Amino acid sequence: MQKGQTIWDPLRKRTVALTPEEQVRQWFITVLAGEMAVPMHMMMSEVPISCQGKCWRADILVYDRRQKPLAVVECKRPEVEIGADVLEQAVRYNMVLDVRLIILTNGRSTVMVSRGKKGVSILERVPSYEEMMEL
Hints:
Helices cover 25% and strands 37% of the residues. The chain has helices at 20-33, 84-97, 129-134; strands spanning 6-9, 14-17, 43-51, 54-63, 69-75, 101-105, 110-116, 119-122. The strands form two sheets. A six-stranded mixed beta sheet has the order 3-4-5-6-7-8, sandwiched between helices. The chain has a two-stranded antiparallel ribbon with strand order 1-2. The mean pLDDT is 91.
């Protein structure tokens, strides 16, 4: 990546600095819109969240048809391992969001944790938008 490079964020509808984390975020937006069939208007990126007096930003939120948060995606640079600390960060966001699906990705590894009618489980495959609403 060259210094000063930018990329168009279709969710924020503006160009943003092309950092390694941003590159992962933009790649995963294409996964959500393509493979998972999430309508673009049902996603937002860099969403502010307030919890316990602190402010954070969720990398990507997916909403259901009633505009209730359905999934949160936490994106990390490729060299950051997806481990307990990354999951802890997403769980903190979920204290406010109460979503059915937590997705953690660094572009090399993706972990999806479902909290649904059948309890908490790690998903083995990428669900479609319709399947996400049935979790």
